[in-house]
Amino acid sequence: MVLVEVTTDDGVTGYGESTGDRSAEACAALVRHITPLLLGRSPFDVEALTTGVQKRAKLDNAPRYASHALAGIELALWDIIGKAVGQPVHRLLGGAVRSEIDYYAFLRGGTTAELVADAEAAAADGFSVFYMKVGLGERADLTNVAAVRGAIGERKLRLDANEAWDPATAIRMIQRLARFDLEFVEQPTPARSIGALRQVKEAVDVPIAADQCAYTLAEGFEVCRLRAADVLVLGPHETGGLLGLRKAAGIAGAAGLNVCLHGQLDSGISTCAENQWGLRSRILRMGTSTCTRCWWKTWWERRT
Fold it and tell me: Sign of the C-alpha dihedral, residues 7, 13, 19, 23?
């Protein structure tokens, strides 16, 4: 995580956060590199600032790297704007279309017993949708999924393979795991091939979600154009901020695909920003991990 602080000459300070699959040092270095390009500009010009910086800093050939760094700046700009006009960000993005946001629980644990314990704790907290990792080996996957399904009853279950399988293995494993009544399987094949994801989608009856192969707008468009997935998993860090997230979700919506919003291991800043965007969207369910679940519960108890 890289925390980003942006201050205006009027003394308003906004806070953002950059997270992702790059090192914190690399992300922070890029934020520092592009800082001079922001000085003297209006924080209200969010899109002009972020897209302009990406071009002026010659980052178009590294869109994923750029998005992770720019997301922290963009979120901080929205924080400034909301504070300056005294409005929550969801109103600045068009206003709320829902009054509540539903969360899923992303299970964590190195053993089957730990996964089951986390699932039972999340179920006791009221979660109705559960996510868990697979791709750990055939025996481990079958054992873990069976145990978690037993622990959560008829609640919804999603699996995330994190690019672990080639297409043939993905097809075989998903067919074997299908009996556990899966809502979808996320990114079963390597992100470098959208065609491989489509091959799996066409061969199995379980819905398929695209994650790592749909980070950029162009990638998300190709997934939709090729009908390579049933769901897009999106987040503000992968898309470069709330505006990029809205564009990516718009592409998915036009293609008739649902959106699942990424869970983040974050400080809480990203979760707050995602809540603002989540109030705007009709087509998502937000994600949270064990760490964020603890933070969110503590924050809510303090607030109430």
Answer: positive
Contact 204, 161 (CB under 8 A): no
In this structure, what token pair is assigned to residue 166?
């080639």
Q: Name every residue whose Cβ is closer than 8 Å to that of residue 166 and which is 6 or more positions away in sequence.
A: 189, 190, 196
Average pLDDT (171-198) is: 97
* Residue 295 identity (one-letter amino acid): W
- CATH fold of 2-87: Enolase-like; domain 1 (3.30.390)
Sign, CA dihedral 285-289-290-295, equals negative
Contact between 132 and 159 (Cβ < 8 Å): yes
CATH fold of 103-303, please?
TIM Barrel (3.20.20)
pTM beyond 0.85: the answer is yes
3-state secondary structure of 253: helix
